[in-house]
Specification:
Keywords: Hydrolase, Nucleotide metabolism. InterPro entries: dUTPase, dUTPase-like, dUTPase-like_sf, dUTPase_trimeric. Belongs to the dUTPase family. The protein has one domain: Deoxyuridine triphosphatase (dUTPase) (Deoxyuridine 5'-Triphosphate Nucleotidohydrolase, Chain A, Distorted Sandwich), CATH 2.70.40. The protein is mainly β. It contains 1 helix and 9 strands.
C-alpha cells in the first residue's frame, strides 16, 4: 500500500538532506509479522528521493504514527506536500530461528566461500 505525506505545510528536501515525514496513520501489526517501509521507484528514478533506512521496519508492538525518513540523493530540491505518495508499506511474516554457535564455518564447503562483494561476477 502507498503511504502518503500528512505534513501540515510543505517541506523542501534539499539535495543531501533528510527529513522524517509524518503519514498521519498508526497500525496494529499482528504478532509474528512486521510492516516494511520501502521506497517508491518513481521517486527514486525521477528525483533521487528514497527511504533512508530501507527497508524501514515497524515492529508488531509499535503503536505510534508511522513516520518515513526520506533522503534526497538527487541534484535538485524536492518539495513534499500534503497527500503526496512518499513510500510503500508491506506486511510480512517474521521468521524466528535458533542459532547454533560454531567454531568454524568451513568456508570451503561452498563455491563462493568467504568471497564477498562482486565475487560472483555480473554475467549469468
Amino acid at each position: 500500500m502507498d503511504l502518503c505525506s500528512a505534513v501540515l505545510s510543505s517541506i523542501v528536501l534539499n539535495p543531501g538532506c533528510r527529513e522524517c515525514i509524518k503519514t498521519g496513520i498508526a497500525i496494529s501489526v499482528p504478532d509474528g509479522y512486521e510492516a516494511q517501509i520501502r521506497p517508491r521507484s518513481g521517486l527514486a528514478l525521477k528525483f533521487g528521493i528514497t527511504v533512508l533506512n530501507t527497508p524501514g521496519t515497524i515492529d508488531a508492538d509499535y503503536r505510534g504514527e508511522i513516520m518515513v525518513i526520506l533522503i534526497n540523493l538527487g541534484n535538485e530540491a524536492y518539495t513534499i506536500n500534503y497527500g503526496d505518495r512518499i513510500a510503500q508499506m508491506v506486511i510480512a511474516p517474521v521468521t524466528r530461528i535458533s542459532w547454533n554457535l560454531v567454531k568454524d564455518l568451513e568456508a570451503n564447503t561452498t563455491k563462493r566461500g568467504i568471497h564477498g562483494f562482486g565475487s560472483t561476477g555480473i554475467s549469468t
